[in-house]
# Entry
Amino acid sequence: MKLHLISNNNINSLNGAVAFLRLFIDNKEFFTANGIDVSVNSNSCGFQNEQEYVKSIKYGIKNKIKSILNHTVFGKKIKYKYYLNLGKRVIKQIPKTTSQADFYLLNDEIVAYNFFKRMGNSRKTIFMMHNNGELNSMTDSALLQNKRFNCFLQKMEKVIFCSATYIVFVSQCAKNYFDNKYPEYRNKTRCIHIGLPDVNINAHIRSYDTLRLVTVGTIGDRKNQIAILKALNKIDDKSIFLTVVGGGPRLDDCKSYVKEMGMDKQVRFTGAQNDVNEFLTDANLFIMTSTDEGLPISAQEALRAHLPLLLTNVGGCSELIKDNGLLVELDESQIVGAIEDFNFRKNELYDMGEKSYQIFVEYFSINKMLNKYISLIS
# Structure
């Protein structure tokens, strides 16, 4: 049996959707042992190391162009069309040897739409929903308000949902939302949590004398790291430290804010990282103030690293917290209050971290995930 993975992202990127794909690639032997051959197509011609790429002149130019395009709805349409064309290119590059794969896993809506437009709906497919159950929840709001563009998105939505064999969600919350909104597709939907391989992290070596926060993710409007910085500035307690792991379009803005507010000694930026375990081990609380999520892999990595969680109540984040942290709304006063609460209860952080690890083992192990996909496609 053949399983072919298709993504519009560069397979060398450090975002969550790509990290999900790499779980299949890194566990090819597991699939082979179960009679499944895994192959992949993606837009991987841009770079092979994102940490180095973000330092390049090419990245700087592309980032500047994106920034200019983001100023108008017309520019945002151009940017979206560019991604659509990338998706077309990926689909056209599928080798003839995989054209008759038994199952195709379509990792985003761009490749899914192009796949079904070119190949029809006769092939067995898994369409991944790495979001809150709303297909276009991560699409720019200005585009969603544009009538003509919104009609195109509705067309895309119908093509994908009607054509996909299975629609897989990474959180139960997202699946429930989708099933209620689109009951006609309920027989296609499944929830399979992303699973991670375990790592050996010794929580006993952590210090709990001061509160040391860590956040991981692409620095932008959706991950909303600026909300953490503003909360820390409002608390104005220099004994609380924050490590911001990741690169992205809002990195310079966040750095400028930290410098302007005199928080340089309190906040450090690491840039994009291939391995975040070092930074998770140094911290004693994971924080994420996203405006939208599916089920964040970085928060699952924090569970695995024996860290308590402070998350905003978006997407499936509530599925990660069971007496091992706090869930807050997207409100500055709630974020401030939660950080202050953790600072006051530092002596409880270790026990909460151990509960996090128990949740990881029970719900988010790699074997649980892989076995569910094998059952789905067999």
